[in-house]
Amino acid sequence: MNQPVLGLFKYVDSMVEAAVSMKDTGYTVTVFSPIPLGVELDPVVMRPNYIRYFALFGAFIGLIFGVVLALGTAALYVLPRGGLPIWPVTPTLLLAYESIILCGVIWTLIGFFIIARKPNFGKQIYDPKLSLDSFGLLVEDIREDKVEEVERLLEGFGADEVNRVEKS
Amino acid sequence: MKRRDFLKFIGAGGIGTGLGILFGQAIKPPGSKLIPYLIPPEDVIPGLANWYASLCTQCSAGCGVLVKVMDGRAKKVEGNPLHPVSNGKLCVRGQSGVQTLYNPDRITGPMKRKGARGSNSFEPISWDEAIREVSGKLKELSSKGEAEKLYLLSSSLGGHLGMLADDFMAGFGSSNSIKYDLFDNRNLRYANKSTMGLDAIPHYDIENTQYLLSFGADFASTWLSPVALSRGYGEMRQGGHSARGKFVQVEPRLSLTAANADDWVPAKPGTEAILALAIAREIVESGHYKGSDVSAWKSLLAPFGRTYAAGVTDVDKGKIRTIAKEFMNARPSLAIGGESISGYSNGVSGLVAINILNHVAGNLGIEGGVQPNSSDLFAGRRADRVGPGIDALIKAANGSGIGLLLHYNNNPAFTTPGSAHAVEAIKNVPYIASFSSFMDETTALADIILPSHTSFEDWGDDFTDPAPGFQVATLMQPVVSPVFKTRSLGDTIIGLGKGVGGAAAAKMPEGTYAEHLKDSWSGLYTRNKAMNASELTFERFWRDTLAKGGWWKESKPKMSKLKVSARSAARHISKEPAKFEGDNSQYPLYLIPYAQAGHLDGRGANVPWLQELPDPITSVVWGSWVEINPKTASRLGVKMGDMVEIESPYGKILSPVFVYEGIRPDTVAVPIGQGHKLYGRYAENRGANPLEVLPPTVDSRTGAYALNSTRVRIVKTGRPGDLVKMDVSTDELGRNIVQTVPPGGAPHKDTSHH
Amino acid sequence: MDNISYNEINDDVVRTMTKTTWKYWALLIFCASMAGVLWFGAWAYQIYAGQGVTGLNTPTFWGIYLANFVFWIGISHSGTLLSAILFITATPWRRSIYRSAEAITFFSVLTAAVFIFVHMGRPWNFYWTMPYFTTRELWVNFTSPIMFDVFAISTYMTSSVIFLYFGSIPDLAAVRDKVTGWRKPVYTYLSLGWRGTDAEWHWLSKSYTFFAVFIIPLAVSVHSIVSWDFALSTVPGLNKTIFAPYFVVGAIFSGTAAIVTLMACYRKAMKVEKYITLMHFDKLCMLLLVMSLLWSYINVVEVFSGWYANTSAENETLMYRMFMKPHAYMYWLMILTNSILPLLFIFKSLRRSIFICIIVSIGINVGMWIERYLIVATSLPRKFLPNMWHDYIPSLIEISMTIGSIFFFVMLFLIFVKLWPSISIYEVKEDIGIPMRKGFKRH
Amino acid sequence: MSGILTRLKDKLASYRVPGYRTKFDYKWTMVVDLDRCNGCEACVVACYAENNLPVVGKRDCDISRRFSWIRIERYVEGTYPDVKVKFIPIMCQHCDAAPCEIGCPVYATYHNQDGLNVQVYNRCVGTFTCATYCTYDVRRFNWFTYKWDAPLEQQLNPDVTVREMGVMEKCTFCIQRIRVAKDTAKDEGRKVQEGDMKTACEQSCPTDAITFGDLNDPHSKVSKLAKSPRRYRLLEELDTDPSVIYLKRVMEDRKGSGHGTSHG
């Protein structure tokens, strides 16, 4: 059951029209593209931006890390130098600044991996043309009797190729 | 861990250990054996330093030192704080004594010449062989009836070693003991003796003087007793006297000492004596001199008028007057004359003139003036430091008057003018035995070398000359066991004396030199009331003296009166400036060779510390230079670092130029000490020896070579020289690095407002 | 770029990676061996014999190595920083050059980082500068500008690598789909299973924006911090408050120039003229012109502030730098290449002349190297105590390592081109536009 | 609880206030009287002997790699015949606000409890930062592994380490001698007193130009000398707060110039 169908399109507007239609019909659609599609996909899907929370969290962790590292190590080993206070302000801020960025970057990356579920080397629905010049529309949750209808519909929307693909 | 594993482990470990021991045996150098510190040598605690009091022999000043010894090795030399000469201080050369001791270029044992003479090719022999061979040669000489043809050439041998050498020579039947050092103050001794009747060099009390007028005495680095005099200088400046002493230096070149003077008077070279006499005349004419023989002085000094002197000396008339006024008004004041003035062809005149100056100003025999040193510790039995000069030896050698030459610790091949041809003369000697510790130019001429200890391995003593106003006897004791197969010179002499037999053997003491030294001190103790009053028994006295580093009276004796008579002075002064070889038109520049702080007469050149010590004035390291006034340099078209030829009628040397504001435009100065052809890896083929271009001018009265006695010309070579100086810029650029206050000015005020 | 098809782009980029001529190999081997001998051979000798084989001396403890370090850090500034700024501002001409530019960043930071170890007296103890738990019970001194450096540069290197890799993921997937043989598994793993779904693109672009946002202040801070290595000292000539902006501007200046040089060579060698067009050079040269004017302004400010202070130390350093041989030659050459020659870019025709671009950009890099060299080599020899002044003459070892580092950098870039999609495939596609039925739609 | 808080507060205050250095056990200070100093360089050789300074040879001297921790600088002013040469011994100034200490990333140089600027050779990684920041150019670097020709190595002072290639070094105020004095004093249950120890340069100085002691002790010689109206410190305008105090040289101004005298 649930035979997914992947339609490959040459033109984005055809694909979007198809996707909107399929979505409206109640199918689950996934869009594949060789380039990022921004506003064009708005009719199909709108996603919130969760990455920002990771970035903020990372920056916060970095701030704490930097301050604690600078002040903590100085407090552990009280070695006066250059007539400076043991807890100097500027270097601490500087260190915090750098570690905010470092941790921010790392947590953003971690966030991406978590949200986008990468890396993923398992078997997935894919077609090598999707990295070339084809825009793919994967239609899932089709009742078995509707598969052919979906295929037809996709071809009607202008898909160059419509394949039944194995489920991942 | 299981028990079986443990046993295996032990087994493996055991085998490993066994193999390790076997391997260790196999790679061990032959003869090496570990001696545990279970029963350590007496008074050696590993890791703790022992300090031994001894004597510094790097120059003839006779500073008492303390040597830091750890685990049997000498680590550092410091001044002996109890010693009245060093006062706990020490100069650059003295502190380098450890590097003399551990110098990698020392002669490691007795050697016999293998190749041609002077080719520096020797083969090692045993001490017995060496003593036997030299004794044999001596006996041969003696049996030929030519005992008088034995010559001993050495540096001034202080204390009982000198007396032992004298005994040996006398016993053998020769009186030809030549003491020679380039800077042995012959002229000063002569001048003082002939005008003031002083046997020993007096104490120049810089410490307490109010006005020091120095004629080329570079006491900050080399003159007489630099450590004691420098200490005096420091006290004079800031020692808490009512006023800070003033210091004027007369010298053609701004030496280290002149750099510290309040005023530098660059009189024309060779005319300083006239300047001194002109000042003396001013003083006498002003009525300051109250002696009964004032008329004699007046007439003697009459020719040295201010105008005449100003014309000759290139010193402003007003300046002569000012100096005279200050010199007589500052009480006490002191005039001293150093190497620069005594090095002229009429060196004695200059020094006599200074004695006159001290006399007419009333500085003789007072605190802060010239204080006589007595030499009565031995009641006439004292190794004389001045005798015939090296020129006598050269003459004898050239006339085949020397059958056998014993040589120790000086280097006439380096320290005599090239034109004196000392090397060629010494080569005429049929047999030369040298006791030197280092292979230098003279030692290389020897047929056999019986190397002596350096001072930290040897026994000895010295009776300081010049002393600090009272008698000082310093003991030298071995602080480390000999580094190489060398021997104490005293023991070598005793061995030779016994080997020769006859009268010489009879004069030699029983036992070793160390025992002889103790016996001699026992004699001193018995004779000398001051000594035996202080301690009950000699053993205690000896022990304490060894611990203290020597013996000296604790307080200054009453000063005896000194005077210079106009009659004795008259013989030595003249209106003529000193003579310089070379025609003025061909050789337009006066040459002033001077003793360099680290190397003195060249003996310090094999010490790496001293080679790398920047010259105090020029900051040059590892080489020599010629100081030229910028005006002269630009006229000659040379700049800092250029290689030039310094050419006199007697030869030429190559040296890089050091452009220096502190030298007269008609004068160039070259430091002595570099230019060794042979003196170890650090000294060889480095820089130039200015003595090579000097004329063989000897003062017949004293036997001293006149160092400042030739003119030279500077010839551009167009090549860059190998000048390495540490200062890149000596321009302060107004950065207030060395801040100053004017004397007498309100020092706490900001001085920029005046 | 209108007549390029999507397929063609993939083919072209994969071609740059897979089709290698023997000339390329020869160049790579030459660069590798030169880097090996001139840099690492010399370095090995230096480690064995000691820092004494350099021309460093007592007042001049920092020499050509520090100049190289600053220079390479500077070069790095145009990759990531420029890429990030242009990304944030959505500048379209960024797309075909930014990948190489970011690679330049990574490689030059790497080269710079090695120079830190090269200049150390005991490089085998380099890890002592890292804060980690240790039995020696000594941490690191966070007041030290060197520690700022350690943190800034390691952050910078990490971030740059992430930025570079992250932006390449879709392209790695594209490459994965094209290649065969050993490359297949490599790019499969490198692309992390990228499929190009709408969700992936969404998170990618959101994350990428954050990276860009983080990178911009980071890059600015990195070169400021590098400047503080000097500026926090009291040494006349180094203690300039203007150093931070001066270094940042100089960094962007030299980095852009390096991009121009490298792009000019790259497009020719890889035959990708259709992606890297004269338009790109036009824009980059305009940037160079702006940076040149900015640099000249700050340079004048630096000289004037020193001159206006009128202290002996400042005057002496300026004199030494500007009017005394041999530094005067270098100084005025620097003014020529950095302030005067870039003025040629006022003319559009010259901006579009590859020849002029190469000449001027190489000139700028030489000039910027001289700038860094002069900062170190004319300030330290003229410190406060004139007695201790001493000129600095680099030794052959130092010069060899400097030249070797260029070969090392080129070698890394040559390897990069073969292993990595050096032109962003998906973004060039974006550049062409989104295929609609009515034709391409551009943003 | 309040006790802990008070202690924490105290500790925080002590960390924050730069004036902590007044609380050092000792305040080792050197006073150099420039009017006494005659530039003879005995101190330089003393330092070589005490501190195992290597001799680098002519070539390395030429590129200014001489090792002496203490050096005499000389400044010549005027032209013939009105020439003045001024000397100043310069060693590590042991600044209380030392630029070098700020620069070291690994704490190889820091301020110890005696107020000394110390160098930990084992910790040094050789970044040169300290030497670059040093305003007095007193830091020396081990460019090579230096060798002593046998048997010169027998002279090496076992109290002082022979430094390895690649580390920075400088004048320590003869910390090994301070150590001995402190140990002795500790054994006797007292503080180090005046006269317990001398630095090598001070010990050797024939003119007594160098005096070393504890500035915290109001009766020490340095305390008295430090109050001299001639007192100044080298490059004081750089605010490094050196522990070496110089006493101005007493010298006539050169004729017709106010240049070269003190302006501040």
What does this protein structure show overall?
The complex is a heterotetramer of chains A (168), B (754), C (443) and D (264). Chain A folds into 2 domains: 83 residues, no CATH class; 65 residues, no CATH class. Chain A is 46% helix and 12% strand. The two termini of chain A are 13 Å apart. The relative contact order of chain A is 0.30. Chain B is built from 25 helices and 28 strands. In chain B, the strands form 7 sheets. In chain B, strands 5-4-16-15-14-6-7 form a 7-stranded mixed β-sheet, sandwiched between helices. Chain B has a 6-stranded mixed β-barrel with strand order 20-24-21-23-22-27. In chain B, strands 11-10-9-12 form a 4-stranded parallel β-sheet. Chain C has one domain: Formate dehydrogenase/DMSO reductase fold (Up-down Bundle). Chain C contains 16 helices and 2 strands. Chain C is globular. The two termini of chain C are 14 Å apart. The chains are: A alpha+beta (168), B alpha/beta (754), C mainly alpha (443), D alpha+beta (264). The interface between B and D is large, with 92 and 78 residues. Strand 28 of chain B pairs parallel with strand 11 of chain D, so a sheet runs across the interface.
Describe the SSE topology.
The complex is a heterotetramer of chains A (about 170), B (about 750), C (about 450) and D (about 260).
Chain A: E1 5-9, H1 12-25, E2 28-32, H2 51-76, H3 89-115, E3 135-140, H4 147-157, E4 161-164
Antiparallel strand pairs in A: 1-3, 1-4, 2-3
Helix pairs in contact in A: 1-4, 2-3
Chain B: H1 3-27, E1 49-55, E2 64-70, E3 73-79, H2 92-95, H3 97-101, E4 111-113, E5 122-124, H4 127-143, E6 150-154, H5 159-172, E7 176-179, H6 186-196, E8 203-204, E9 211-215, H7 226-238, E10 246-250, H8 256-260, E11 263-265, H9 272-285, H10 294-301, H11 306-313, H12 317-329, E12 333-337, H13 339-342, H14 347-361, E13 370-371, H15 390-398, E14 404-408, H16 412-415, H17 422-427, E15 431-434, E16 448-449, E17 460-463, E18 472-476, H18 489-500, H19 502-507, H20 513-527, H21 529-534, H22 538-548, E19 550-552, H23 566-570, E20 589-595, H24 608-611, E21 626-628, H25 630-636, E22 642-648, E23 651-659, E24 667-672, E25 698-699, E26 704-705, E27 711-720, E28 740-741
Parallel strand pairs in B: 6-7, 6-14, 9-10, 9-12, 10-11, 14-15, 15-16, 20-24, 21-23
Antiparallel strand pairs in B: 1-2, 2-3, 4-5, 4-16, 8-13, 17-18, 18-19, 20-27, 21-24, 22-23, 22-27, 25-26
Helix pairs in contact in B: 4-18, 5-18, 6-14, 9-10, 9-11, 9-12, 9-14
Chain D: H1 2-16, E1 28-33, H2 42-51, H3 58-62, E2 71-77, E3 84-90, H4 99-103, E4 109-111, E5 117-119, H5 129-133, E6 140-141, E7 168-169, H6 175-187, H7 200-204, E8 210-214, H8 221-226, E9 231-232, E10 244-247, E11 249-250
Parallel strand pairs in D: 1-10
Antiparallel strand pairs in D: 1-8, 2-3, 4-5, 6-7, 9-10
